Amino acid sequence: MKSPDQAVLEAIQAKGHILLTTHYNPDGDALGSLLGLTEILEGMNKLVLGYLDGPVPPLYRFLPGCAQIQTDIEKIRDFVTQAKDDILTICLDCGDEKRLGKNSLELMSFRPIMVIDHHQGNSGFGDGAWVEPHRSSTGEMIFDLAEALGAEISPRAAECLYTAISTDTGSFRYESTSAHTFAVAGELVRLGVRPEIIANNLYDNYSLGRLRLMQEVLASLEMHGKDRIAIIKVTQKMLARTFTTMEDTEHFINFPRAVRSVRVAVFIKEVAPDVVSVSLRAKGQCDVSLVAAQFGGGGHRNASGFRVKGQGLEAVRDALLPLLLQETRS
Ligand code: 5GP
Ligand code: MN
């Protein structure tokens, strides 16, 4: 493990205004890192603004500080204008500037930009970057950053970072979970985190509609290639019937992934009438980031994804299946 990049540390120390952002469709690591770092930097008397392309998903609204996140680019523009030269932008948990969302070009004009990330295929964007693909989560890196800065981690920040780490490791189960990950999590508990409260917020707090949606999504299951490939789907109609949103599908992919014979689990989502988003999860030696890359996406070896426009669910499945059969052949 490396310590935080010197350029990132110096940039933070030098600036009084800090704009934080992360990828659209933010997950627990994206939000936990953004909110945890907000709290840490505010503790250093910085003026901090967090920007997100879209509202905070309901699942994560228990995180302290999430109501302060801005989704209005005008507010960000004002903040940057007021800061004059005293501004630093930090992109968190984001492997590629396009994943910053619809305002990515404007966000990229708020320089300098530092990137803190753990994605394998990080494109190398930004004026400086601290990228460590072997890390469990960006949240784990933010903990080390706070230590390197000599900054205090408040109980609120600890809660955010613990959420980031525990969600991105699948509750400390994925390969990226290291001794250091546990050491950081242990320290966060010492700082006041109650793991059972966070787990309750994340995993025992769903609507009945989500369970009904799960029934429909699991009913769509298809198995291929000697039961090594499992595919599930969600359509806009399923969401409408169960009064749910796409955010309610979080974690569904873990059900097909959990089947003994399955090496690759696929979740094909109709996110809009003409837009399909695909999540891929692999176990063992399969590398789904290579498959995602062939469709213009990316991610990690064991968890990746991509998005396509202008094709239906079935067409995307048909294009994907031969590549997956190849990947799971041996
Ligand atoms: P999820 O399936 O949870 O949406 O995404 C899993 C991982 O795949 C994410 O952490 C991210 O690294 C990657 N990923 C998902 N969708 C995309 C995409 O459209 N483009 C890229 N580059 N990566 C993606
Ligand atoms: Mn992450």
Task: Give an overview in words.
Helices cover 40% and strands 18% of the residues. The chain is α/β, with parallel strands linked by helices and 330 residues long. The chain has two domains: 6-202, inorganic pyrophosphatase (n-terminal core) (Alpha-Beta Complex); 208-327, Diaminopimelate Epimerase, Chain A, domain 1, CATH 3.10.310. A six-stranded mixed beta sheet has the order 6-7-8-9-11-10. A five-stranded parallel beta sheet has the order 2-1-3-4-5, with helices on both faces. β8 and β9 (275-282) form a beta hairpin. It is globular. It binds guanosine-5'-monophosphate and manganese (II) ion. The site of manganese (II) ion (MN) has 6 residues, from loops. Manganese (II) ion is lined by residues 29, 93, 118, 137-138, 168.
Relevant terms:
binds guanosine-5'-monophosphate; six-stranded mixed beta sheet; inorganic pyrophosphatase (n-terminal core); 18% strand; 40% helix; 11 strands; binds manganese (II) ion; alpha/beta; globular; 330 residues
Task: Give the structure's gist in a few sentences.
The chain has 330 residues and is of the alpha/beta class. Helices cover 40% and strands 18% of the residues.
CATH homologous superfamily (4th level) name of the largest domain: inorganic pyrophosphatase (n-terminal core)
Question: Per CATH, which architecture of the largest domain?
Answer: Alpha-Beta Complex
Question: What is the global morphology?
Answer: globular
CATH topology of the largest domain: inorganic pyrophosphatase (n-terminal core)
